[in-house]
Amino acid sequence: GIGIAITGSGSTVPPVVLDNQGLSQIVDTSDEWISTRTGIRQRRLAAPNESLRSIAAQAAQQALAMAKVSVTEVDLIILATSTPDDLFGTASQVQATLGATKAAAFDLTAACSGFVFGMVTAAQFIRTGTYQTVVVIGADILSRWVDWSDRRTCVLFGDGAGAIVMQASPVSDGLLGFELHNDGSQNGCLTLSYQPQPHPLGEIVTVGQGTFNPIAMNGQEVYRFAVKRVPEVIEKALFRANLTVEQVDWLLLHQANQRILDAVAQRLGISNEKVISNMANYGNTSAASIPIALDEVVRAGTIQPGDVIAASGFGAGLTWGATIFRW
Ligand code: ACO
After folding, report:
1. CATH T-level topology, domain 3-172
2. Among 257, 282, 284, 289, which residue has the most ligand 1 atoms within 8 Å of its CB, making it the best to mutate?
3. DSSP state, 132?
């Protein structure tokens, strides 16, 4: 079969920093509460003149530069996001900003699991021989969709974008296994939903006009879900990869909460030195968190070529999934 190589990574976050101290002037919270419960110390927030399009394109440009791939070679762009600039999709705009004239492009929505779902989608196009070069981007600007008066949610999130380049490889295969799951019956645990407001059209018909409900979350349910399902899905993906937990060099989880990372690592029997964590600086950046964290350790030289990474995304839907890959 056709192998897959991950040949580049890139990431970007907005320049504006809001630390826990600053947040405590906006809602009734404290640095102590936020850092002990979540491990988050600060987050980056997009200014009104920034766009999902621009941060997504910046992350992709960096990944392409690392991969030494010309943008005109890109066959497909998958943009995992829940916060597009345009509900018709932002991937086309990213394609234009990049100048990726040959590429097909679409948005993919699977909340905080979006990047993992995107990697798996990209892999199918490559394995079939359809496409050779795919850019997978995870990008979100959740600051535009949270209720800034709700301390239970607004303290958790930050904005950013990350990307990788996945390419067909005749010599090796770097995507070793994956597993994806959904449980829509638990959808109410974490929502960013529409609330159609009745809007009569004359006397003929009444339609629903869209207004949105900001992010609402049952934190304890989400915590329990993550700590149970994430170890399971990683074990299943490792089984498909024909690998054991001992062969994992790095655990790369969606950066939702340090306590979730610690609990998952403990359940899997993976030591803390192997757990990649950067949420102290960025909070939960949703679909962007895995590629941002990956790009940081790649550029720091922490991850070496050939290392085995177990990545898992989990979140609204509910959705969860894992990919096992070699850098
Ligand atoms: N500052 C101060 N106090 C707060 C805050 C805050 N920001 N938020 C809640 N509290 C209060 C509550 O009001 C409550 O007070 P009360 O007992 O007087 O009512 C108390 O703190 C405890 O609240 P809980 O919700 O029980 O706190 P918990 O220990 O469960 O921690 C947390 C909340 C951090 C959200 C936890 O449930 C968690 O980590 N859940 C996972 C959430 C998550 O990671 N979601 C994202 C994953 S999916 C995705 O990425 C989209």
Report:
1. Peroxisomal Thiolase; Chain A, domain 1 (3.40.47)
2. 257
3. S
